């Protein structure tokens, strides 16, 4: 089945720094989503981005479907950005989301 | 519009018991999917229901089952609980537009199941 790899696994930043999270996937996908998991476990939708570039405030994402990767940019990070960021893809064969192992971001003041 | 809701939020059971978890999707969403999250295995897909029919199934034993009602609400059941079933169970809903490949999924807060 399709493989999803996220890097780096852990990231430690000072408040105000910028960061780039990467998601590689092994096959063509129908859909790609980025999530932020809050401390209580809920997955918060950040981007639905099977291709192209989107921006939402300090966050932006780019997916290059032909090269099978997606990037999540966080600018001017804040302590509230801390948590686990997941990339998930839906293969062309089905409707299930396949998740990467996540990137754990820690932002300190 | 209200988000995806899940009940109960926390549950403690003992080995051998069974458990039923409930999920109410976003109004108008017809697809409901279930996922299990554990520290060791991460987030794994259990199954998906659409219009009361199981449309897709992950690689889990038959002890895990589900169903969907006519109002799109869904339940999942785990029988003969094992210690390894302790996990966060997440439900997601999506509005599948016909044949278009649009399937953004929105997640509920989850049910944290502890098996003793």
General description of the model:
The complex is a heterodimer of chains A (109) and B (116). Chain A is mainly beta. Chain A has strands at residues 4-7, 10-14, 19-25, 29-37, 43-48, 52-56, 59-64, 69-74, 83-91, 97-99, 103-108. In chain A, the strands form two sheets. In chain A, strands 2, 4, 5, 9, 10 and 11 form a six-stranded mixed beta sheet that branches. In chain A, strands 1-3-8-7-6 form a five-stranded antiparallel beta sheet, with no helix packed on it. Chain A is globular. Chain A starts with a strand and ends with a strand. The mean pLDDT of chain A is 95. In chain B, strand 4 and strand 5 form a beta hairpin. Chain B has strands at residues 5-7, 10-13, 19-24, 31-38, 42-50, 53-57, 64-68, 74-78, 87-94, 106-107, 111-115. In chain B, strands 2, 4, 5, 6, 9, 10 and 11 form a seven-stranded mixed beta sheet that branches. Chain B has a four-stranded antiparallel beta sheet with strand order 1-3-8-7, with no helix packed on it. Chain B starts with a strand and ends with a strand. The mean pLDDT of chain B is 94. By secondary structure, chain B is mainly beta. Chain A binds chain B through residues 30-31, 33, 35, 40-43, 45, 48, 50, 86, 88, 90, 94-99, 101-102, and chain B through 31, 33, 35, 37, 42-45, 48, 50, 55-56, 58, 88, 90, 92, 96, 101-110, 112.
**Coarse shape of chain B:** globular
Please mark out the parts of chain A with pLDDT under 50 across 5 or more consecutive residues, or reply none.
none
The average pLDDT score of chain B comes to 94
Seen as an oligomer or otherwise, the chain set is heterodimer
Number of helices of chain B: 0
User: What fraction, in percent, of the residue positions of chain B are helical?
Assistant: under 10%
User: Which chains share the greatest interface?
Assistant: A-B, 22 and 28 residues
């Amino acid at each position: 089945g399709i493989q999803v790899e996220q890097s780096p696994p852990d990231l430690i930043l000072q408040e105000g720094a910028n960061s780039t999270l990467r998601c590689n996937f092994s096959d063509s996908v129908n859909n790609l989503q980025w999530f932020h998991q809050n401390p209580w476990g809920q997955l918060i939708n950040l981007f639905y981005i099977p291709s192209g570039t989107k921006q939402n405030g300090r966050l932006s994402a780019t997916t290059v479907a032909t090269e099978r990767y997606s990037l999540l940019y966080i600018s001017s990070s804040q302590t509230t950005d801390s948590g686990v960021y997941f990339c998930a893809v839906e293969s062309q064969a089905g409707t299930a989301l396949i998740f990467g192992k996540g990137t754990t971001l820690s932002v300190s003041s | 519009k209200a988000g995806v809701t899940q009940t109960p939020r926390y549950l403690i059971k003992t080995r051998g018991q069974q458990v039923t978890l409930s999920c109410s999707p976003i109004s108008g969403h017809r697809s409901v999917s279930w996922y299990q999250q554990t520290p060791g295995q991460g987030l794994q897909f259990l199954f998906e229901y659409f219009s009361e029919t199981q449309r897709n199934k992950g690689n889990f034993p038959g002890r895990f089952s589900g169903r969907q009602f006519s109002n799109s609400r869904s339940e999942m059941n785990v029988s003969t609980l094992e210690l390894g079933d302790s996990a966060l169970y997440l439900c997601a809903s999506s509005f599948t537009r016909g044949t278009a490949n649009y399937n953004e999924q929105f997640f509920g807060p989850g049910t944290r199941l502890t098996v003793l």
